[in-house]
Amino acid sequence: MILVCVGSELLRGKLNTHVSHVSRRLASIGLEMNEECTVHDRLPEIAAALRRALENFQVVLVSGGLGPTFDDLTREAASEATGRPLSFSKPLFREIQAKFRRARHRMPPANARQAYVLDGAESLANHAGTAPGQWLDLQSSPRRKPGSRDLDSGPPHNKAGRPPGCVEDGFRRNDGKVLALLPGPPRELYPMLESAVLPRLKKIYGAGARAETHLHFVGVPESAIDDKIRPIIHRESHASNRIQFTILAHLGLVDLDIFVSAATAARARAAAERISRAVRRAAGKAWYGSDDAFPLEKVVGDRFRRRRATLAVAESCTGGMLASRLTDVPGSSDYFLEGCVTYANTAKVRELSVPESLLKEHGAVSRPAALAMAKGIRRRAQATWGVGITGVAGPGGGTAKKPVGLVYIALASKIRAVCRAYHFTGDRGAIRRRAVLAALDLLRRV
Q1: Which pLDDT tens digit goes with each residue over 56-72?
Q2: Are strands 2-6 and 35-39 parallel, antiparallel or unpaired?
Q3: Could you tell me the domains of the chain?
Q4: Is the pTM value of this prediction over 0.90?
Q5: What are the DSSP E strand ranges found in 90-228?
Q6: Within 107-240, where are the H helices?
């Protein structure tokens, strides 16, 4: 199955939300979108995209290009790609006229273009706009209605009334395939998807079910996660082509998505949970949560709340970003006591009682400085745990011994203290965000 998005604006910076929405709704009935493509509002390009889609996919969904304006060319492109002429539908034209009357507007002549339908296609009602959709089963023969007329001259026909090269069923290459033309605006597309497209697809392919689980890992590179879980993925993928995996790394985190299709929702959920348990066991402490309800800062907060522990943080290079993440969680006042940004050395001495002699001997970016910051903020706030972060975020300030990306993160309690050195890559923002994630990961593990 493929989604073809028509619209030059989508190739000029406008966010295309159709792919994520349509793929999620297809997944809800156990179907998968295999590919998507986006094309300009130009007739040759749309027609070429549709021809390729029909040659390679069983179901072709098309969004956009069904309006009344000069650049709405999906109908004409579909006619060219399928060899099906466009016919004027008087009942559809009257429906469009009625919508304008109900809105107390005069219908512009250009809206008549929206009443043209591919021969053999079924029109799909649009309750939120004037652009009807179309559903064409390419196994059916074109049905020419008496008195119907084409939008333009269309492709030449042979003596039998068929486009050149077509057999008697009307289309040679795409028998058994489906082409659905849908409006582009989300407020029109999404309701039509629910009321007209998904029910038809369920009828064709059966009412299957799909379950998905999203697992999140931190503190290890993507390749390390891959090594740990590859035997599971290999075993499950070869056992069934209805189980699929995707792995994605982004700025210190690794996400694994598991998709399972089955005859019933219960079977799909059971298989997804079984695989999820195996992956979590293999990944060990690198796994920190599942699905989107468990961001890392919430995992940390839940852990501190269960232990009735409290926390205070002292930040230098991250400039308060760790405190911000921790307090993004509702109810974080149960465990988070205080955050202090001590960027200058004088602030470290004044607010955290870091000895001047220590800073002179080791420097602000050092293991001793991070430990002193963690201990100082813990004493000041009377917290169970204190965190100290200091480093070189760049782009300047680095040296051969202390390059850009070097960050020390320390944790301290009354009886225990630990400090780790990290060497992060990326620009200033990336280094700071990676440092925050590393601090959250350390807090998760205490």
Answers
A1: 999 999 999 999 999 99
A2: parallel
A3: 2-205 (3.40.980.10), 209-290 (3.30.70.600), 296-445 (3.90.950.20)
A4: no
A5: 116-118, 122-124, 133-137, 178-182, 209-218
A6: 186-192, 198-205, 222-239
